[in-house]
Specification:
alpha+beta; about 140 residues; about 15% strand; 5 strands; three-stranded mixed beta sheet; two-stranded antiparallel ribbon; 6 helices; 2 domains; Dna Ligase, domain 1; Arc Repressor Mutant, subunit A
């Protein structure tokens, strides 16, 4: 999906929820939309400073918190990075395949994995509220090299 189309969809989601999609939030969203795989907050900050020279770490973290709250991004916990979710118009299970060589991240939405996790959790009397599963390995491009 084209970046402008994603931004328009994000604006619509914000309007529907009564949230403000500020200029800074839009710029951070745009930077994430241009990024393949995950990117760290400080790398995003450096990119944001090109157009917002006074941006501080708090600027980027506030924007990332908002984008995460709206469901627009996923945090990759194991690498402390962030990536845009192209399917933010609905709640979905998330599994991330992370290449340890090139950093590429592939987002899966397997309901089979999600159901299995929920079923196993229920056996322990546990209710899963949200889940992001991360798997590290090597992508097909890196394997072919």
């Amino acid at each position: 999906m084209a970046i402008e189309s994603l931004i328009n969809k994000a604006k619509q989601v914000c309007d529907n929820k009564g949230a403000r999609f500020t200029t800074i939030r839009e710029k951070v969203f745009h930077l994430l939309a241009q990024t393949k795989g995950g990117i760290g907050a400080y790398d995003l900050l450096e990119q944001l400073k090109v157009t917002e020279p006074n941006a501080k770490p708090a600027t980027i973290y506030r924007a990332l918190d908002f984008l995460a709250e709206m469901g627009f991004i996923h945090k990759i916990e194991s690498t402390n990075a962030f990536m845009l979710c192209h399917h933010f118009d609905h709640i979905h299970p998330v599994q991330l395949l992370i290449c340890d060589k090139c950093g590429h991240v592939e987002e899966l939405h397997s309901t089979v994995i999600s159901h299995e996790l929920n079923n196993k959790a229920a056996e322990f009397g546990f209710t899963v509220i949200a889940q992001t599963i991360e798997a590290h390995g090597t992508c097909k491009k890196c394997l072919a090299q």
